[in-house]
């Protein structure tokens, strides 16, 4: 498909950017969720990014289908800057197509991962939210994990805990000042993205050390004067990690990238909440695992009467976690009330948090080959 002329692009309300690296399994499903939107996008740009599988082939198959919105498939074979480089490549192509600037030619840009499926009303709802406040630079999705993908009891547990984790986060996001515009689905005002280009020459920071381009860009938007928010009705369904190794690798990348970014920024009015949350998470995990384990041993040796405070807290932690996930249904509430599944997951979470901090200070981020 040839680039649209500036006159055509001036009529674009919403353009979608989909970076895709080795996503042959899910890219067609993700793109199809865009075709089924109640407010269809005007243009989809798929940036096939350092892929070694058939991602480009499947994306092009979607682009050639009769029911697809106008879709362009760009191929980026030599990209050292990970997802940020792919996104900037797509934005640069778009800017050239509309005469050099996004402002005035395009109203909104949605960035979504190629392993994500959007709710059919995502675009419609996101447009309504961003129109409610001219100072809003972006609306982040509420992310939920896809269900029913397990093949054995351990995998069922691992995926189930991730589903609960995503659901809990979606219900309790810091909506007035969200930590991160989710890479799974972030709906930006084109004017806000253009302001970042004018300020620093690019929207997404191109550096192979940038592991969390979504978080870094969120901070950049705030620093340039834009507000960001999240909306629980703008729903994105994302893939979960089927094995413990893949889960730890994913979370270490996210957490380590966040620590790297916070270290580079320092303590500011835009980072203090994230820094405080990280410190409290580490202290809370250490306290629960250390004090809780010692108290359990004491209770087992001398009986429950010797640990009344512990059992009072247990009563609280049976009710409170269950209520936090009530929107996910009774099964999730039972899992949280039992406590043991969440305790095991807390051990895993503590491991990736601690290892991420250590790696941020002790190791370098390797570039893509």
Automatic annotation (TrEMBL):
Alphabetic keyword roster: Glycosyltransferase, Membrane, Transferase, Transmembrane, Transmembrane helix
KW Cell division (keyword) present: no
Superkingdom of the organism of origin: Bacteria
TM annotation in the entry: 270-290, 302-323
Short name of any one Pfam family annotated for the protein: Glyco_tranf_2_3
Similarity section: Belongs to the glycosyltransferase 2 family.
Record's protein name: Glycosyltransferase family 2 protein
């Amino acid at each position: 498909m040839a680039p649209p002329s500036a006159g055509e692009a001036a009529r674009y309300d919403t353009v979608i950017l989909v970076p895709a690296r080795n996503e042959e399994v899910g890219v067609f499903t993700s793109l199809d969720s865009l075709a089924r939107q109640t407010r269809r996008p005007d243009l989809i740009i798929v940036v096939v990014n350092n892929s070694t599988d058939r991602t480009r082939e499947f994306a092009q198959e979607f682009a050639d289908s009769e029911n697809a919105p106008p879709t362009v498939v760009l191929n980026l074979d030599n990209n050292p800057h990970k997802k940020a480089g792919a996104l900037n490549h797509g934005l640069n192509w778009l800017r050239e197509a509309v005469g050099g600037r996004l402002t005035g030619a395009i109203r909104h840009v949605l960035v979504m991962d190629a392993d994500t499926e959007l709710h059919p009303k995502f675009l419609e709802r996101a447009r309504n939210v961003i129109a409610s406040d001219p100072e809003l630079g972006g609306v982040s999705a509420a992310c939920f994990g896809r269900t029913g993908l397990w093949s054995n009891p351990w995998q069922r547990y691992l995926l189930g805990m991730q589903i609960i984790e995503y659901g809990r986060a979606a219900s309790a996001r810091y909506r007035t000042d969200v930590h991160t515009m989710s890479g799974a689905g972030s709906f930006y005002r084109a004017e806000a993205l253009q302001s970042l280009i004018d300020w620093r020459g690019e929207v997404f920071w191109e550096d192979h050390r940038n592991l969390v381009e979504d978080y870094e860009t969120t901070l950049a938007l705030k620093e340039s004067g834009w507000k960001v928010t999240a909306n629980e009705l703008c729903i994105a369904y994302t893939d979960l990690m089927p094995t413990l190794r893949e889960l730890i690798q994913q979370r270490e990348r996210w957490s380590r990238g966040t620590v790297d970014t916070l270290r580079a920024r320092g303590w500011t009015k835009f980072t203090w909440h994230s820094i405080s949350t990280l410190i409290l998470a580490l202290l809370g995990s250490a306290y629960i695992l250390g004090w809780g384990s010692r108290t359990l041993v004491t209770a087992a040796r001398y009986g429950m009467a010797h640990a009344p405070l512990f059992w009072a807290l247990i009563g609280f932690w049976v009710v409170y976690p269950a209520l936090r996930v009530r929107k996910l249904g009774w099964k999730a509430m039972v899992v949280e009330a039992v406590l043991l599944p969440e305790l095991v997951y807390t051990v895993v979470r503590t491991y990736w948090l601690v290892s991420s901090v250590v790696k941020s200070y002790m190791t370098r981020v390797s570039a893509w080959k």
